[in-house]
Specification:
Elements (H helix, E strand, L loop, with lengths): L17 H20 L30 E2 L2 E2 L4 E9 L6 E10 L4 E6 L21 H12 L5 E5 L2 H9 L3 E5 L3 E5 L4 E5 L2 E5 L1 H9 L13 H21 L3 H14 E3 L3 H11 L8 E5 L2 E7 L2 E7 L1 H11 L19
Parallel strand pairs: 3-6, 5-12
Antiparallel strand pairs: 1-2, 3-4, 4-5, 6-11, 7-10, 8-9, 13-14
Length: 338
């Protein structure tokens, strides 16, 4: 792994649970497109159409999946998405993800882009790009990863809690004792280990838990915490996808309408829902966070997260590259501080 200097410490986000928001959002979106499409999946639906965002690579403005993007070939029926969760206070992007859905192979790859990622814009950090609108953020992210992003989705985190409550909660095996209070965040987490029924708010609290007030908690720290979060997300997604009642469908649609902004049409959602019925959530979804150094300063802005170019490129190619050939460092735009 590349490092600037010797063993520079990476800055941790002030609120650790921010890195989980993208995972919550993915589950909500996957669940939403499935329940919206329930009951219509047997009908013949047209493939989604889109107007791609700009990118640093040479691409055609009329490109569609399976056709040529400039001098590159898109994989057949492979679509790219920008998923963002805005900060309710500032309007910046609190969570930013790129997702690629390979429909024929039923594979979803996703990468999280840390909110403080250094970009060559006036505000230096990528999260500020959302203040000028989702289209602006889409252009900046597309320029970074080196390929057009077909669709965008912005999501309010409240949708996760509402979605769990809409299916009557979930049964989950809490792995360790959880006892933590943070009055400043109005956060109170109190659980004993073992199988129990959780509401939406409780499910969110289990995912947010890092350690107890006395420092105890997961023996393996964040490794086990990540495993717990992944298990919770799969549990929630499976529960949502198993619901088929008309009453629940209406409620799911209402949750999406109130909490999701997207350029996906209703027909698009139904098409992806029909295809998504064959997705195995335990084996078909993979992801990671772009690696970098969070201690970089640029133009007077401190704690910028400077991506490691080679490591980030490798992750982009492994998880979200929609082309039949690998991207190169010339295709992406991973900015480095002078």
């Amino acid at each position: 792994m590349e490092h600037k200097g010797k063993k520079k410490k990476k800055r941790r986000l002030k609120r650790k649970y921010r890195i989980l928001r993208g995972i919550y959002a993915v589950v909500v979106v996957l669940a939403a497109i499935v329940v919206i499409g329930y009951g219509v999946w047997k009908f013949v639906l047209p493939e989604p159409e889109f107007t791609p965002a700009a990118s640093s690579s040479q691409t055609s403005s009329a490109s569609v999946p399976g056709m040529e993007d400039g001098d590159r070939q898109r994989k057949e029926q492979t679509y790219t998405f920008l998923l963002s969760v805005p900060d309710q206070a500032s309007g910046n992007g609190d969570s930013i993800m790129v997702i690629t859905y390979d429909v024929p192979n039923q594979k979803i790859g996703m990468i999280s882009i840390p909110r403080d990622t250094l970009v060559n814009t006036p505000n230096a950090k990528i999260n500020a790009s959302l203040v000028s609108g989702i289209e602006n953020l889409r252009d900046v992210v597309s320029d970074l990863v080196g390929f057009p992003l077909d669709f965008y989705i912005t999501l309010d985190l409240d949708a996760f809690v509402e979605m769990v409550d809409a299916v009557g909660g979930v049964d989950f095996d809490v792995p360790v004792e959880m006892y933590y209070d943070d009055p400043a965040q109005d956060l109170h987490i109190h659980f004993q280990p073992g199988m129990q029924h959780l509401s939406g708010q409780q499910a969110l609290e289990v995912c947010r838990f890092r350690h107890n007030a006395d420092g105890t908690g997961y023996p393996l720290g964040d490794v086990q915490r990540t495993e717990t979060t992944q298990k919770m997300m799969l549990t929630v997604a499976s529960k949502v996808m198993s619901f088929s009642g008309v009453t629940n469908l209406s409620e799911f649609v209402d949750i999406v309408q109130r909490n999701v902004e997207t350029n996906l049409s209703g027909t698009d959602l139904a098409w992806f829902a029909a295809k998504g019925l064959g997705l195995n959530l335990s084996t078909g979804v993979s992801g990671g966070t772009l690696p970098g150094d969070g201690n970089v300063s640029y133009r007077g802005v401190t704690y910028c997260y400077e991506l490691y170019p080679n490591d980030s490129l490798e992750m982009i190619n492994q998880l979200v590259n929609p082309y039949t050939t690998d991207l190169t460092l010339e295709d992406v735009n991973i900015f480095q501080a002078p």
